[in-house]
Amino acid sequence: MSPAEINGTGVRLRAYRPDDAEAVAAGYDDPLSHRFLPPLPSPFTLAHAERFLSEGVGAIFADGGAAYAIADPDTDDLLGGIGFDKVVPSRGQAEIGYWVGPWARGRGVATAAVRALSGHALDAGLHRLELLTHWDNPASMRVALAAGFRREGVRREALPNRDGGRDDLVVFVRIAGDPDEPAPRPLPDLPAGELTDGVVTLRPLGPDDFDFLFALHNLPEVWQTSVPAVPPGADDVRRRCTRAAAHWLEGTRADLVITEAATGTPAGDIGLFYQEPATGQGMIGYSMLPAFRGRGFATRAAQLLSLWAFAETDIARLIAGTLPTNVGSQRVLEKAGFHREAYLRSRLPGPDGTRQDDVQFVLLAEDLLAEGPRLDG
């Protein structure tokens, strides 16, 4: 592929020039670049940038790849860089990568550039493009999805990190013939980023929620009713927090924190697990800190999440389960509109190798609309 210009929506991909060196150095020396591009020298200096422009770009093209500057189509100012490498000619496959300077983020630059280069490369003979991201880089995952890439899987320990370990990478793929329209998302974003009824607010779980979630899920009454029924370690909880956004974008689960609307204080958590997309069935589960139990928060959270699921997704049926002895949780579900449907003997693994029965409740969209909230009981 020659370094001819490629025009995109609001961006122009052009050849790098020597006078791009200062902007390249500033972009590659940015903290996000250091985090997600560990092969880069740290610090990344002007000398590194000049060497990349004089030697690195040509080497990429010599190996069958491509490297372009992302430029503003009106001012020609450098906004970032994009290219592909790791070309496997026998498979018609390559790996696309990009960076955007902090001065140009939040404007759709990366999505426009990835869409433009992907379309050009696939039209020019490549059949498969891979875009790899870290688990804790949801911004890059959003770019991939918006540019028509679809999540394919995870490459375990695919990339050495700066600490001497190795990181897993999430794989997104676009193949020739795929539309450049955004990939479908089974679980869309929340309107305005949260759900609230004025008493409780649900917001997405994130990395900053580690301390709260660790304390909540190490309560004996919480972990003993979880699957698996063991207290989670710090690494498990940290992964749950840092990967929550990725799972939401994947469409498999939506993890949220239940907060007191007036103060923003975390009170519990609630999750929607899209366990059977083929049948339109999802499942919810929740936990509350002791100080917030008995105040109707869990019922309000279940109703908010159920309303959103029925209105904004293809879920037609929600289930939830409780232990037979957990009368309080059963009451929460009944007040939220769920109906007891089944008693499943020895369904769940319990503590110390035991098995536990599960009382299953179900909610349909028509049930919720017909009966309305039942928060007074």
Automatic annotation (TrEMBL):
It holds the Pfam family Acetyltransf_3. Its EC number is 2.3.-.-. Coiled coil: none annotated. GO terms for molecular function: acyltransferase activity. It comes from the Bacteria. Residues 11-176, 200-366 form the N-acetyltransferase domain. CDD domains: NAT_SF. It is an enzyme of class 2 (transferase). Keywords: Acyltransferase, Transferase. InterPro entries: Acyl_CoA_acyltransferase, GNAT_dom, Ribosomal_N-acetyltransferase. This is GNAT family N-acetyltransferase. The lineage of its organism: Bacteria, Bacillati, Actinomycetota, Actinomycetes, Micromonosporales.
